[in-house]
From TrEMBL:
This is Membrane protein. InterPro entries: YccS_N. Residues 3-120 form the Integral membrane protein YccS N-terminal domain. The lineage of its organism: Bacteria, Pseudomonadati, Pseudomonadota, Betaproteobacteria, Burkholderiales. It comes from the Bacteria.
Length: 121
């Protein structure tokens, strides 16, 4: 139960941060009459919000899924991919802040190949 509690706390902090970010962006949007940079940042906010909503939704019975893939590395591979995606999001945010071009990690292709192979077994 401790991991679920920790996850709930982290989710609460993330939600508070997202809400504060939205308020700041909307206030800034009113103040600078929709400057391009603010509009672009607001777009990034909505992307982050969408990712969070999709990641935190629980449309699947995870216990059943775990039982089904008990002798497979599918769940491990998905966990690895989600971790890589989180790191990519952090890298993208750094690139946005520093106004540098973002280079997508070429290891994603290999991760998807491994997931496909695990699903076919």
């Amino acid at each position: 139960q401790a991991p679920l509690y920790d996850l709930a706390l982290a989710n609460g902090l993330l939600m508070a941060t997202l809400n504060q970010t939205k308020l700041s962006l909307l206030t800034r949007l009113r103040g600078d009459r929709g400057q391009r940079g603010t509009r672009r940042t607001l777009h990034y906010y909505f992307v982050a919000q969408d990712i969070h909503e999709r990641a935190s939704s629980s449309h699947i019975q995870y216990q059943t899924l775990r039982e089904h893939f008990r002798h497979s590395d599918v769940l491990f591979r998905f966990q690895r991919l989600m971790s890589m995606q989180g790191q990519a999001c952090q890298q993208l945010s750094r690139c946005i802040l520093l106004r540098q071009p973002y280079q997508h990690d070429p290891h994603f292709e290999r991760a998807f190949t491994h997931i496909d192979a695990a699903l076919e077994r």
